[in-house]
């Protein structure tokens, strides 16, 4: 490599930002400020961080969906004294005006462009790691995976990583089981303040929002197939039913299938659901959930989408093999695959996260709790690094209780407190019937 080429490569790596268009910043700033108004818990943390600077001297590489809500998390971390570099965790989840505002109005290192190709995506991950982080935040575990595969020299300097998604936690637990994990990880995804609210209420609402924005379909009376009945699947199924859809759930875990059935949903294998579904949404964290045999069974006009983190849940390669023609963008974020027998199957958002590819992602009010957990766990990891194990660690209960308390106060909700007699009863064992 020539000296000039090496210099250009180094300059590109050290660029302060890589966004689509800085002129979009005014629009993005307005949206960031709007979200800030819906995130009182995170705002409370940011105000304290500004005074106490608990993250001073630390560097945080964050691989997250570059949304307005994420912007307010990054602002809180920076207020705490951290140097932050942000890159996208999914090629179609970046809001370009938001990324522009982070760079232009808040001086952030941000590397994210909606629709970026795979090469650019991984270059951006590398640029985030170039700050030599002491902490990382991940949404899908791509950053941690890259760290372990190609940037091993950075591992000794990292205190911990925090993972936001079910998909990412699955990957990280597999790494830990194989002995490949070399840093402590905190599963923010498994915090009650995350999965019970973000996964259920956030994914439930934003997924339906993405489907309707992309298609303008009437869901009432339509058969809506939900693949996976985890917390995300629960949320989507309940909201689809609330709009009048006939909801079918498919599952591989008996306990979840039993729960879905007792929640009043029809449960059946995907092979059967494929024959009757009008809209299909995958939310499993696994690959090949919708496959060749399912496409062959689907009705003409079936709509297929995914709300799991990666686009592997729908076997698009198999669908392309079945199609005699492909029509991109028949509507914004809607592609039509015409099969050889004349049937058409419509895919939303290229099979990527439909709530971010076709809409704006989760409402700020629910991300308030997830990102408050992220921010407080960054502080907790710095203060308690000696307690962390090289494993997938849980969020301490006291952090969750504090977040829930502040969230209730922001909603104007009051709750009871235990009397001295009740506390004594709960702590004792002698008093019975």
Taking the alpha carbons of the first and last residues, their distance comes to 82 Å
- Report the C-alpha radius of gyration, rounded: 23 Å
Q: How big a fraction of the residues is strand? A: 15-25%
Query: What is the number of helical segments per DSSP (H or I, 4+ residues)?
Result: 18
Q: Order of strands across the widest beta sheet?
A: 1-4-3-2-5-6-7-16
Brief description of this entry?
The protein has 433 residues and is of the alpha/beta class. It has helices at 3-13, 25-37, 40-52, 68-79, 96-104, 118-129, 142-150, 166-178, 192-215, 231-242, 254-262, 270-276, 292-297, 316-322, 354-357, 364-383, 397-410, 420-427, and strands at 17-18, 59-64, 83-88, 109-111, 135-138, 160-163, 185-187, 223-227, 246-250, 266-267, 279-282, 302-306, 323-331, 334-339, 344-348, 392-393.
Mind sketching the topology for me?
Blueprint: H1 3-13, E1 17-18, H2 25-37, H3 40-52, E2 59-64, H4 68-79, E3 83-88, H5 96-104, E4 109-111, H6 118-129, E5 135-138, H7 142-150, E6 160-163, H8 166-178, E7 185-187, H9 192-215, E8 223-227, H10 231-242, E9 246-250, H11 254-262, E10 266-267, H12 270-276, E11 279-282, H13 292-297, E12 302-306, H14 316-322, E13 323-331, E14 334-339, E15 344-348, H15 354-357, H16 364-383, E16 392-393, H17 397-410, H18 420-427
Parallel strand pairs: 1-4, 2-3, 2-5, 3-4, 5-6, 6-7, 7-16, 8-9, 8-11, 9-10, 11-12, 12-15
Antiparallel strand pairs: 13-14, 14-15
């Amino acid at each position: 490599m020539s000296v000039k080429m090496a210099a250009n490569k180094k300059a590109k790596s050290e660029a302060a930002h890589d966004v689509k268009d800085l002129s979009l910043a005014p629009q993005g700033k307005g949206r960031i400020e709007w979200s800030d108004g819906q995130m009182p818990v995170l705002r409370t943390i940011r105000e304290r961080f500004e005074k106490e600077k608990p993250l001073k001297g630390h560097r945080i590489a964050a691989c997250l969906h570059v949304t307005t809500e994420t912007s307010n998390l990054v602002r809180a971390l920076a207020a705490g004294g951290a140097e932050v570099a942000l890159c996208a965790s999914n090629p179609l989840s970046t809001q370009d005006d938001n990324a522009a505002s982070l760079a232009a109005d808040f001086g952030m290192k941000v590397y994210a462009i909606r629709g970026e190709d795979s090469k650019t995506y991984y270059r951006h991950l590398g640029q985030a790691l170039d700050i030599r982080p002491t902490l990382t935040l991940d949404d899908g575990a791509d950053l941690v995976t890259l760290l372990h595969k190609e940037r091993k020299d950075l591992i000794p300097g990292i205190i911990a990583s925090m993972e936001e998604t079910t998909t990412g936690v699955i990957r990280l637990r597999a790494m830990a089981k194989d002995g490949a994990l070399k840093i402590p990880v905190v599963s923010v995804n498994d915090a009650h303040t995350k999965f019970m609210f973000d996964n259920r209420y956030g994914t439930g609402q934003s997924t339906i929002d993405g489907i309707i924005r992309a298609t303008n379909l009437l869901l009432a009376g339509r058969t809506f197939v939900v693949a996976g009945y985890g917390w995300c699947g629960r949320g989507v199924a309940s909201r689809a039913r609330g709009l009048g859809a006939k909801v079918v759930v498919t599952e591989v875990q008996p306990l979840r299938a039993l729960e879905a059935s007792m929640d009043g949903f029809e449960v059946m294998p995907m092979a059967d659901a494929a024959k009757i579904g009008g809209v299909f949404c995958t939310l499993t964290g696994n690959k090949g959930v919708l496959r060749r045999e399912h496409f062959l069974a689907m009705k003409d006009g079936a709509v297929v989408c995914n709300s799991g983190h990666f686009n592997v849940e729908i076997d698009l390669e198999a669908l392309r093999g079945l199609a005699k023609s492909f029509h991109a963008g028949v509507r914004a974020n809607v592609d039509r695959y015409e099969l050889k027998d004349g049937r058409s199957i419509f895919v939303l958002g290229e099979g990527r996260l439909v709530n971010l590819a076709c809409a704006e992602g989760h409402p700020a009010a629910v991300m308030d709790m997830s990102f408050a957990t992220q921010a407080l766990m960054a502080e907790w990891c710095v203060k308690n690094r000696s307690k962390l194990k090289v494993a997938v660690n849980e969020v301490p209960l006291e952090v969750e209780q504090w977040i829930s308390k502040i969230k209730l106060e922001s909603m104007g909700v009051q709750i009871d407190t235990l009397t001295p007699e009740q506390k004594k009863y709960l702590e004792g064992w002698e008093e019975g019937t």
